[in-house]
UniProtKB/TrEMBL annotation, chain A:
Keyword check for Endoplasmic reticulum: no
Major location category of this protein: membrane
Protein name, entry field: Branched-chain amino acid ABC transporter permease
Ranges for region Disordered: 370-389
Keywords on record: Cell membrane, Membrane, Transmembrane, Transmembrane helix
Membrane topology of this protein: Multi-pass membrane protein
Organism from which the protein derives: Alloalcanivorax venustensis ISO4
Subcellular compartments: Cell inner membrane
Segments passing through the bilayer: 15-33, 45-67, 123-146, 153-172, 202-221, 242-269, 325-349
UniProtKB/TrEMBL annotation, chain B:
Species of the source: Alloalcanivorax venustensis ISO4
Name recorded for this polypeptide: Transporter permease protein (ABC family), membrane component
Coiled coil: none
Transmembrane region(s): 20-40, 52-68, 74-101, 153-178, 245-269, 275-296
Predominant cellular place of this UniProt entry's protein: membrane
Keywords for this protein: Amino-acid transport, Cell membrane, Membrane, Transmembrane, Transmembrane helix, Transport
Subcellular location: Cell inner membrane
One Pfam family hit: BPD_transp_2
Disulfide bond found in the keyword field: no
Family: Belongs to the binding-protein-dependent transport system permease family. LivHM subfamily.
Origin: domain of life: Bacteria
InterPro entries to which the protein is assigned, alphabetical: ABC_transp_permease (IPR001851), ABC_UrtB_bac (IPR017779), BCAA_transport_permease (IPR052157)
Amino acid sequence: MKTNSPLQWLTSREGIYYLLLALLLVVVLPLLLDPFRLNMVGKYLTYAFAAIGLVMCWGKAGILSLGQGVFFGLGGYCMAMFLKLEASTPEATKNQSTPGIPDFMDWNQITELPGFWQPFHSFSFTLIAVIAVPVLLAFIIGVAMFKRRVGGVYFAIITQAIAAILTILIIGQQGLTGGVNGITDLQTLMGWNIRTDMAKTTLYFVCVGLLFLCLLVARHVQNAKLGRILVAMRDQENRVRFSGYDVASFKVFVFCLAAGLAGIGGALFTLQVGFMSPSFVGIVPSIEMVVFCALGGRYSLLGGVYGALLVNAAKSGFSESFPELWPYAMGALFIGVVLAFPNGLAGLYERYIMPLEKRLPVIGKYLDKDKPAPQAPPVVSDQLSAEKP
Amino acid sequence: MFADYSSTELMSIFAMQGFAGLSLFSVFVLMAMGLAIIFGQMGVINMAHGEFMILGAYTTYLTSQFFQNLMPELFAASFFFAMVLAFLVSGALGAFVEWAMVRHLYRRPLDTLLATWGLSLILQQAYRSIFGAREVGVDLPDWMMGAFNVTDFVQLPINGLFVMVIALSIALAVYLLMYRSGWGKKVRAVVQNRPMAEAVGINTAGVDRATFALGCGIAGVAGSAFTMIGSTGPSSGQAYIVDTFLVVVFGGAQSLVGTIISAFGISQAQSTMEFFLSGSMAKVLTLLVVVGILMLRPEGLMALKVRR
């Protein structure tokens, strides 16, 4: 069903789902939670950016990247470098042997700000870099891999290796990056103290706003012809190629899109949490991002958001009360999602809850009238056979 | 970085670091052999491979404790019992995992990756609950202590040599099994063309289970050998998993010879560079070079000629 005006879209079935999410994030959670918990939800939402990227990249286009943490981390580090430079004024660091450089550089006997830190004095440069640096890296990786038709499993393993490389590099170059502790002690953004409750709540709403912006962008891509080509590529790559499309360029595009989204998430993460460290870059966080996406439903954008929220909430809940049980729960989640319901929560919803919708008073009838055309078929596609000629 | 050294000094540095790299080489070969079977032949990405290895290591630890306390006179031979036991334990767990999980996912390789990652989390936590978070070491019997003095500056520790011998003999055994035995022929037939293999009467499900169990069993032996040169902790396996996958992919996933060559190349490059750079930078450079070469030559070093 084609909807043209925004109002028509908002009253369609899909629009109502978006409105419900907005209601939850903008009204319900801020009313229910104190600023500390709300800040945690904001932190979870930053992972939702990466999850949306993975929905596009993995769910729609069938490219599993195990390196989303790299892009998340790069976005986060760009923001952290700006904030750190702002925090390291000559007055604030006058006890150091070289005032005016970040404290960890001083501890590592570095006496001058390295060249690649210099541009991060500028806020506008930082805002561009938050998206541009991850996208650029994704572009280089994507072009190198997809033009040579490396895909599937190999791509996943190589992106994982890149996640490992970046983590080792960050930890090894302690003087330039803050090492294993990361970049800590971030206080102000353009003179505005980001540690107060008020600032944290404001940042939460900024995060929600940007999340919806990104959701709409991703939704636009998904509904455009581009999105259909991505899905076609996932299911029958060779047929798309034989129809005259440049498969590699589409893959590079969607990989860069996912990287950019993860970068935005990383920057917001730094702002809300107040530090950035290599533990958000490496192999484990990257794979966890895949779980957010898989649990929510790998082909559903909203599913990705709910997946990120639920898994992280469960993680905090478990680690507060039974820290030793969390790895079991997480492992079982992985296995369960893959074996029992590969389409995640979104798939379960469509299968079991959607048929019940029409029993709802008033709205049920209305929703029933607007049954969506079956979207992309369940993704459990068979990538091996797709590669065979 | 070479400028500060004379050429004779450089030669001896290379020789010294080369021998030091051999123990890393052995670990790579041992882990990669199991993975080359599971990933290279079956196309299953087993992210829990490191945990199967650690299972073998803990089995060895328990066996040596058993011998030390109850039969000290047989302690010198305990490693041989332990290796067989490690093979059986890891292989049995592998067969169970194949039955419960992997066989449902043969057509979805990316999903096996996620499921086995989940398995690895569960196993790691299980090790942590049972054996504690601290690393455990195995006491070496007397005959494994000591070293050969090859020249003044090159010493070969006997335990390292022993591990290398194990690694190479396992590689040889795997080669004979896969390429020179009837069973290996069946495995390769199933890999190449499943419906045809079924049509000529091969029990493909059985072959799959046995192959997966064999790969896991070899990982167990790898773990057993690993205890002779290092201590074992719940997450020791994870430290090697990315490297091992790179070794297998870099060598060309379906070629055992390629796997050995790439294990040799990667371990030697890393060990030599460690002398000149810090350990982490050596690792970064090695991995970057490997990833770079893979981007230029995605099929790996020794590729089968396949039309694409």
